[in-house]
Amino acid sequence: MQGYLGVDVGSVSTNLVVLDEKLEVISWIYNRTQGKPIQAVQKSLLELKELLPSSVDIKAVGATGSARYLSGVVVGADIIKNEITAHAVAAAHLVPDVRTILEIGGQDSKIIIMQSGIVLDFAMNTVCAAGTGSFLDHQASRLGIPIEEFGRYALGSQNPAHIAGRCTVFAESDMIHKQQIGTSTEDIVYGLCQALVRNYLNNLAKGKDLEEPIVFQGGVAANNGIRKAFEEALGQKVTVPKYHHVMGAIGAAILAKEVNPERSKFAGFEASDTDYCTSGFNCGGCSNNCEVIRVKVASKTLACWGGRCGKWEEDSAV
Fold it and tell me: If you write DSSP's letter for every residue of 201-214 in order, what string do you get?
């Protein structure tokens, strides 16, 4: 059986997916990155190997996510693409006529406008935590609620509290005030869901026509409270795909299959045992003074990136 591996490494989660020739999911892994992307990828490779049938032969590998260059070196990626492209490809595969993609991860969020499988417009939020999953994680911790139970609490709300969602600091102050005056936990939780959705739409959706079908993906899509808040705010149905939490990896795997290399660069599952070393330096070759990242195994440089002119990338490829 031929398999296509997609790797999506972000600040919060590390996701690996293997698709078959019909682009059906064979196996997937979802782990926490915990600030150690190389170790997270290696751990996930080991776990994936145990889940895969022995007959699967990895024919191509794709990498995406904020650590896509680093993970691409570790796994031996045949193609490296940004998150917008990967998420759009995955959504268009699962919902061919998708027009709007809502994606909320742990540390950033995105909106993608599609037409006939082509990206027309997009926006990203990488600076405001109040529109991301970390906002909910933090507030859940303060409320003493497991984040996995957040959606259940939200759906039990009868009169959701209005909580300021422009900033995590204001939201937390508002939430504490609501607790002090006796607002129920369910109403506070759903109020937080509505606050996140307002922040998301105000920051990312301004000037954009959000048309159906609307697909909601990313780890936060598991929260039924957020899904309900989106449907109320938009007045439209929001679809959450089965593999919403690993859509970036699915998109990377689909892109890898499209590349169809004669011989894949896949480093093999034994890459989990390799000792990789990363370091950074400032080039100093011009006034840009670019910060360049280097990955080595023993004394051999595998790859460099970060320079604007490509000088170091070219040198490492020789």
Answer: HHHH-TT----SSE
Residue 196 tokens read as: 């996140």
Please state, in angstroms and rounded to a whole number, the distance separating the CA atoms of residues 84 and 171.
Answer: 29
Q: Each residue of 148-186: b (16+ CB within 10 Å) or e?
A: eebbebbbebeebbebbbeebeebbebbeebeeeebbeb
318 has pLDDT over 50? no
Query: Which tens digits make up the pLDDT trace of 200-212?
Result: 898 898 888 999 9
Mean pLDDT of 265-278: 87
C-beta of residue 52 within 8 angstroms of C-beta of residue 22: no
Rounded-to-10 torsion of CA 176, 180, 184, 187: -40
102 and 68, same domain (yes or no)? no
Determine the average pLDDT of the residues in 66-90.
92
User: Do 101 and 228 reside in the same domain of the chain?
Assistant: yes
Structural domain including 284 reads 276-317
At position 260, the amino acid (one-letter code) is N
Q: Which of 257, 242, 173, 191 is nearest to 3 (CA)?
A: 257
Q: Clarify whether residues 184 and 102 are in a common domain.
A: yes
Q: Using an 8 Å Cβ cutoff, are 38 and 259 in contact?
A: no
What domain count does the chain have? 3
pLDDT at 279: 83
